[in-house]
Amino acid sequence: MTAAPRTLVLWDIDRTLLYVGDIDRQVYRETFTEIVGRPAERLPARGTGVTMPLAIRSLLTDNGVPEAEIPHLLPRMVELLPRRLASHTEDLRQQGVLLPGAVSALKNVQAQPGYVPTVVTGNLKPNALLKLQAFDLTGFLDTEIGGYSSDNDHRPSLVAVAQTRAHAKYGTRFSRSNTVIIGDSLEDVRTGLEGEAPVIAVASGKTSAVDLAAAGADVVLDSLEDVPRLLEAITTVTHSGL
């Protein structure tokens, strides 16, 4: 019996699968105060999808840290941020929420023959795992082969990171024809356009369905609740060019 062709499904996390409210911003506050020695007056914008190292750089510059100090302070903040988030594990469980349809969508994608679900996220890997574990989602994803901002702060580059890891583990070469991104932000769309992977955008975050489509998403869904539509979209965007 011939095995089903493999398809690499790259899930975004924040505002696609789950939402942790102000916890990330609180962690940025605590990390900035500990490393810089004073409170931050300006915090990174919400829901942009930008990678954490770039968000930290903006946090430093927007709060008046001299450019010459950033190469020294930024890696210290990157190192501390996961430890700070870990101290809020119970808050993640109590204050965070799963987005509508997320668990059913993850289960059904994982159940499809040949589908290889993982993540491509602006989170550092430890932060991504903390969030997924808080909502018992890690069992639906192969987190070993994901692309994280710990790997590269340029989010489109993470597509190739995940494809390379998936190839090494599963023996299949992944390209535009058998890779898909599922996410909610303009950064997710840009990641697909520049990283050469089709994008199924979900209007579950701060960006409207109209704006996601205008940015170049291949398919736009209102939510993850219509699982048959999601599965149809994955098939369409990964096989339409074959």
Please provide a written account of the structure.
This protein is α/β, with parallel strands linked by helices and 242 residues long. Helix content is 47%, strand content 11%. The chain contains ten helices and seven strands. Strand 5, helix 8 and strand 6 form a beta-alpha-beta unit. Helix 1 (23-36) crosses helix 3 (70-86) and helix 7 packs across helix 8.
Descriptors:
242 residues, alpha/beta, Rossmann fold, DNA polymerase, domain 1, 2 domains, five-stranded parallel beta sheet, two-stranded antiparallel sheet
Question: What class would the helix/strand composition place it in?
Answer: alpha/beta
Helix content: 40-55%
Question: What order do the SSEs take from the amino end to the carboxyl end, as H and E?
Answer: EEHHHHEHEHHEHEHEH
- Report the CATH topology name of the largest domain: Rossmann fold
The CATH class assignment of the largest domain is Alpha Beta
Total tally of structural domains: 2
Number of strands: 7
Rounded to the nearest angstrom, the distance between the terminal CA atoms is 22 Å
Tally of helical segments: 10
**Spatial strand sequence of the major β-sheet:** 4-1-5-6-7
User: What is the CATH homology-level superfamily of the largest domain?
Assistant: HAD superfamily/HAD-like
Low-confidence stretches: none
Largest sheet data: 5 strands, parallel
Mean pLDDT score: 95
Strand content: 5-15%
Radius of gyration: 18 Å
Tell me which CATH architecture of the largest domain applies here: 3-Layer(aba) Sandwich
- Can you tell me the overall shape? globular
Keywords: Hydrolase
EC number: 3.-.-.-
GO molecular function: phosphoglycolate phosphatase activity
Pfam families: HAD
